[in-house]
């Protein structure tokens, strides 16, 4: 029976890569060490030869894939529409960039590229023949604040209805299933100057589904400072899409970004709704990758050492349990 | 993001030109973004040392793929500043820096496809030995 | 060189925008050089109609490979104006052209690797039927 | 015995191509119709797909080569150093452009590219491994006012001494062997407003090797206008390099640009020293191409119809005689 596969976006190890304590091979090895098998990469982050990957580099790349028993999955593309200060790139130029990224993905052995919601849909549509030509799918990342269930998706659904799902589909980012204010973000807000008492008040109000306008007045009376209001704003933007919405997208989910901010030592995630999401993915027969995207480093790095390997491993323990892997 | 790493803790030094005069100083910076970028999207740079501020006009930006003034960079779309790479900023300032310890502040803006990414960092650095530019071959 | 062919003898007409107003006019030109070029090397354009002069700011340049304002063109290095190709210049001028016969003068400068190539041409053209811009699809 | 070969740069047919009375295939056919066998091309002039030539175009191109019994020779490159208004391209970028043109030339089946003297020598030197990689030589065009015999060439000779002549050599443009003021240019000067009498006076003085400073004073007294002085200036810049200088370059002449302005009906060229040049080329054993570059169109097109085919054919009649072709 087809089952969900475990992978990692090397984006997760960006802190260590940036600080030069992990090289590309180390990142790949870290994926393998957890028994995960899918490797997602942002070529512009970890391939300095981008966009012209040399045969020498590719030989090393595929050598690592073999050595560590992993395989390439997704290559994340950006479509640099603001390449020049004096103008936005034309559609034609964006199609060229899309082809460039499809080629890079093909060279890396990836089956899909991630495109951003800033790429005009007409550019995606014009790129479909190029996707076919290079044998690489185009996956639109659906990332907070975009809502998987809203009418925002209608034009894309129309594209799917007209052109099918062989080359175009979606890559939902699990950041859209956020349950509650993140503890590490709250702690950071306090370190940045918010009042612990007010942060706690806001969090309690959020849990109680209180009217945030009223909360705003309350904390003003409590003497809230700019950081306190920033925290309230952050909580107000928390997006919890109902995971059942994934059923609507059954059939065109190419890949999943398993975003997370903080995995607890008991292998649970307080913030993101994986306990519900993964069963829904199983139910709809999703047999692609859950590709970890650890993003907590940005929040804790002012005060704590970042251990991306540990964080990702904890998430994979949770996935093993939820997927039912032995 | 990565703001606290923008100003490298090493690499601040005066630069001596071919005629032996101090033409300015240089420092090294890291990218405040999670990937490398084409040089043309490095939108602006502002360096403050002590009470003096230096902007695009007086800054030369050098990475492995090339060396350009900030005004030239706006059209350099095929050369990149890599995610794991130090960039060297050479600032024209006849006489260079005088005090051994310098408060160095860098403000940088990068145009991502979804908007401007800014980065800000301040560090106190010590001047390293001067850099002597080689006399040109001919 | 090819100066006398710069202004095409056909293609001068007013342009009507989506709301039915005359937003300006357009004319067609040929390249005064012996090869095609990247659009970024089209350095400047000056169009004189009657006593009025229009420069880069009010001109949109369109060839098969793309359509850009002259200020945008300075960074368009990967699209080309071919040697055998008419370029359409759309000039913003509310009300458009009024007289049926118009003296059209074009001055154009192209940056070749060995310096600026200028071209100059004057022709008297008759206005052709107006061009109606289609209303955008949504 | 190896002999000089006859070819044409399609540049010669630019007037008709520009006016759309000859297409690329017509130009190739015109070369073939004279029994010439070499086709030189400026890709940026006649290949609208430049720099990415499609397999479809290349199939047509090689089909024409076969159909008309001709072969590609040289592709003329430009190295767009002033691509952007705000700066001159860096050496690295110029090396990239050189590689792009080497690839285009390789795709077209050319054995050499023409580079301009505006390309820095250090860029040429850095491009030599790329020439080897793509199997295409780099030929520096030596064009008036550059003097094949002057010390201007010393650094290039040094480059040859250091790196050999397999990938770097020269393409002399025969415009450097100009004998006297061109008749069609004199006629054009008169049409542009110069005085026939003064133009004649200048030409006679030139033939008599008179001191041009003195001539300047003379024509000023005769009432010379701006066009007259322009004509004098043009004559003062006539470059006649001694054709014997070609002997010095024996061994690194990759290709020859057979520049001309006006061929007379009796198949002679009053202006350019081919009667001496071709025998010298034979003497040094040059067995490459004489590649016609007709440039008279620019001079006569204000008053006369341009017939590039006829002009090039006349030059080839002259070449047949000088080469000794039956
Ligand atoms: Mn994501
Ligand atoms: Mn030539």
Q: Which properties best describe this structure?
A:
heterotetramer; A: 326 residues; alpha/beta; TIM Barrel; 2 domains; eight-stranded parallel sheet; 45% helix; B: 138 residues; mainly beta; four-stranded antiparallel sheet; 1 helix
What does this structure look like?
By secondary structure, chain A is an alpha/beta fold. Helix content of chain A is 45%, strand content 13%. In chain A, helix 7 links the parallel strand 5 and strand 6. Chain A is globular. The two termini of chain A are 14 Å apart. Chain B has a single domain, classed as Immunoglobulin-like (Sandwich). Chain B is 3% helix and 52% strand. In chain B, strand 10 and strand 11 form a beta hairpin. The N and C termini of chain B lie far apart (45 Å). The mean pLDDT of chain B is 93. Chains in contact: A-B, A-C, B-C, B-D, C-D. Chains A and B meet through helix 1 and helix 3 of A and strand 3 of B. The site of one manganese (II) ion has 6 residues of chain D, from strand 7. The site of one manganese (II) ion (MN) has 6 residues of chain A, from strand 7.
Concise overview:
The complex is a heterotetramer, with 2 copies of chain A (326 residues) and 2 copies of chain B (138 residues). By secondary structure, chain A is an alpha/beta fold.
